[in-house]
Amino acid sequence: MSTLPDPSAGAEVKAVDRAHVFHSWSAQGLIDPPAVAGAEGAYFWDYDGNRYLDFSSQLVNTNIGHQHPKVVAAIQEQAGRLCTIAPGFAVDVRSEAARLVAGRTPGDLDKIFFTNGGAEAVENAVRMARLHTGRPKLLSAYRSYHGATAAAINLTGDPRRWPSDTASAGVVHFWGPYLYRSPFHATSEEEECARALAHLEDTIAFEGPQTIAAIILESVVGTAGILVPPAGYLAGVRELCDRHGIVFILDEVMSGFGRTGRWFAADHFGVTPDLLTFAKGVNSGYVPLGGVAISAEIAATFDRRPYPGGLTYSGHPLACASAVATIDAMAEEGIVENADRLGERILGPGLRALAERHRSVGEVRGMGVFWALELVKDRTTREPLVPYNAAGEAAAPMNAFAAACKKSGLWPFVNMNRTHVVPPCTLTEDEAREGLAILDEALTVADTHTV
């Protein structure tokens, strides 16, 4: 830690926060936000001197870790020469950020529309798809999260959609593949893939393919479970889209920029979408930035026809400078390869070993530094450790597990009956083993809630 403990300063930070900050996704009177004093690499710490190994990467976005010196220096340098400029101008750092992103996206996704984050990227991607096709409907999976803006929250499948669901947004949800809890009664990955594609094909047929503008999927489902699609599934969706003239959108906001051990998760599956959304890891959230990578065909739609969308801070110079520095550092330091190596050698084997020791672990799944442990009350019946969307006393077993992690110096990412193992892509092998050891200890608490 680069700062000495100062509890009185921490108390003041919390007091002002409680007086004036309105927090997202929270009942304001029931929360007690920790006051963070600093962060570096894979760790952050509070004013009381407690240091945490960040196995959440905050919101699965600090792929390059906290306070990477090259990215911090790039922001400082850019601030010294040009802090901001309107998006209608050509600026060196914006052009270079777009070039670097386009150089890593699959296929011909060579035009980049910059946004302030992932939700705005999704919002603009579906708008482009609707304008390109002239069709109204959008299809997305129930187990998904695409953001909290108007269209993005309606595309989302998880319960965060419910309070904002207008039932008139032109969104139809369908079941994606999830063998552990197969909605198709499948017994193998091959069956799950075939039946999920058949279900999607039926959904398209009964909705009317001529009414569907786009299908949007997370390349690897993130917050809703770290669900790696079975071999052939994304290619099958691509084929269905091609057959019916539907735009295929891959949401790589969470899975992109090294998280799965590739620049983009789509690279694992050999699939090129028509539109690809990104944010988070493009610059680890050092300055808000997201975007849409656009195929040549869709970009051509707007060669003579204005695109009716824009943002004051699209391609903000400070954000683009941090993206350029991030991508360059990831390439120079082999950070994507490090994430792949950690998944293969340390995290994957280590998490599977935990599953063998703890009866609360029903399944381990993931790749790179993108993993989930699904915790269950009963391994035989696969009953979740807590009910779907549990709150209050019903969520107590998962809350106890999370508290045990934090007490031992690990900050977990807990969602429903899962803990996601999503540390920075820069994590070292020793740090990975440290985190696994803490998880091992904390899972003994989860075990006490099993039958």
Task: Give the helices and strands, then pairings.
Blueprint: H1 7-20, E1 36-40, E2 43-46, E3 51-54, H2 57-60, H3 69-81, H4 92-102, E4 111-115, H5 118-133, E5 137-141, H6 150-155, E6 171-174, H7 189-207, E7 212-218, H8 233-244, E8 247-251, E9 275-278, E10 290-294, H9 296-301, H10 317-332, H11 335-357, E11 361-367, E12 370-378, E13 383-384, H12 396-407, E14 410-411, E15 413-415, E16 418-421, H13 429-447
Which characteristics define this entry?
single chain; 16 strands; 17% strand; 7-stranded mixed beta sheet; 5-stranded antiparallel beta sheet; alpha/beta; 38% helix; 451 residues
Structure description:
With 451 residues, the protein is an alpha/beta fold. The chain has helices spanning 7-20, 57-60, 69-81, 92-102, 118-133, 150-155, 189-207, 233-244, 296-301, 317-332, 335-357, 396-407, 429-447, and strands spanning 36-40, 43-46, 51-54, 111-115, 137-141, 171-174, 212-218, 247-251, 275-278, 290-294, 361-367, 370-378, 383-384, 410-411, 413-415, 418-421. Strands 4-10-9-8-7-5-6 form a seven-stranded mixed sheet, with helices on both faces. α3 packs antiparallel against α10, α7 (189-207) packs parallel to α8 and α11 (335-357) packs parallel to α13. The longest helix has 23 residues, at 335-357. The two termini are 41 Å apart.
Whole-Å distance between the termini? 41 Å
Shape: globular
Query: How much is the average pLDDT?
Result: 97
Which strand order does the major sheet show? 4-10-9-8-7-5-6
Q: Beta-strand level of the residues, as a percent range?
A: 15-25%
Count of runs of 4 or more consecutive helical residues: 13
| Rg of Cα set | 22 Å
What summary fits the major beta sheet? 7 strands, mixed
Q: Which structural class is indicated by helix and strand composition?
A: alpha/beta
- Give the topology string: H per helix, E per strand: HEEEHHHEHEHEHEHEEEHHHEEEHEEEH
Query: Helicity range of the residues?
Result: 25-40%
